[in-house]
Amino acid sequence: MNAYLASVLENVKSKHGNEPEFVQTVEEVLSSLEPVIEKHPEYEKVDLLTRMVEPERMFTFRVTWEDDNGNWHTNTGWRCQFNGAIGPYKGGLRFQSNVYPGIIKFLGFEQTFKNSLTGLPIGGGKGGSDFDPAGKSDAEILRFCQSFMQALYRYIGPDVDVPAGDMGVGAREIGYLYGEYRRLKGAFENGVLTGKGFSYGGSLIRPEATGYGAVYYLENVLRHEGETLVDKTIACAGFGNVTWGICKKAAELGAKVVTLSGPDGYVYDPEGVITEEKIAYLLEMRASGRNRVQDYADNFPNVEFFPGEKPWGVKVDICMPSAMQNDVHMEHAKKISQAGVKYYIEVANMPTTNDALKYLMDCGMIVAPSKAVNAGGVATSALEMAQNSERLVWTAEEVDRQLKQIMDTIYSMSVEAAEKYGLDYNLVAGANIAGFQRVADAMMAQGPF
Ligand code: GLU
Predict the structure, then answer these.
(1) Global confidence as pTM
(2) Is the pLDDT reported for residue 325 higher than 70?
(3) CB of 128 closer than 6 angstroms to any ligand 1 atom
(4) What is the pLDDT of residues 23-56, one digit of tens each?
(5) Which atom of ligand 1 is nearest to the CA of 380?
(6) Atom of ligand 1 nearest to the CA of 378
């Protein structure tokens, strides 16, 4: 990292020392940008990077709701409108008890580069609440979502800021949030949220999009090595919507996901999560709200459950950490390398600590970064926005075709960006550079603000 980038990072560290996830993602991105900054002194001249690491706007709001026993609770809501240079702010809402400004900021920063990579007109944003949806009744979720939207609705809109789902926010929550928005605005502005149900403006393939997109990206990586998905084994983490999409598409293309994980441990299914019944069961597990992966082992024969452990170190061809941030630490990275894994394809937002990611790359493993791999989700959200504004509905085939094309383009743009700056086949740096470039161009064109 050159002196300019190091000084930007130092400032972020001193200002955000109590937000380690944000510092981590800034460090990860900046460490790829040295050749770009050296070639473009105009960026340093206007101190573009300091501007880029500062959210355009971030606000906090009170969310008060009543539980089923008549007790009142107060949570905090946040929305970070990180960067709107290339389009309306766009990014999910996360409802999880560990949410705090550092999580929202790291996700908003990642989102800015990810959205840029899609090539579509969407800026970066993220929001959420420290509300814990686990164990809440449907009526409690409804009241929470209504209260959340009452605070947020003035600050979002189809051309302003378009939230979506993330952890703890799925189709049900988006439905409740949208219902409240429509009531408050008195208008059918369904382009204000994505991930909607199909009946009121959701896009076909959006539920599958993140997982499908990840597998389309993976196909590109395999092709580069002269390989295909046929007979490949994949270790996934989590068992949510993203992992479900990976299982489905991988099975269709002849590969098999053999591990899933949860807060209680991981399961190993040597036959793979490949049958329709098994894939559908993942949705049941999620809908149950139990948040237990052991249920999968209890429900299917020949599946082993490893309580309290993670699937990193299982012998597979491909690892796809698809659960949450910082799931893979140095100790896991070492196990992954010892297991002879050839491909490490990040899926969850920032699933790897920076030292572990560097270790895996230094081992010679082929590493792909989440901001490229999981961009199919938000890309399909942008396709949902396009359908809403055109008042049209595209077929599943049409959306899937565009999704695949977008993923192929993200892959090739990343490869080309790395090559352009003499970094060989470095998909991590390539994604950072390609994502940065478009936002930088737009910011330079729009003048200092
Ligand atoms: N939360 C998802 C992400 O991390 C989706 C965001 C969206 O569709 O706006 O990209």
Answers:
(1) 0.97
(2) yes
(3) no
(4) 999 999 999 999 999 999 999 999 999 999 999 9
(5) 8
(6) 8
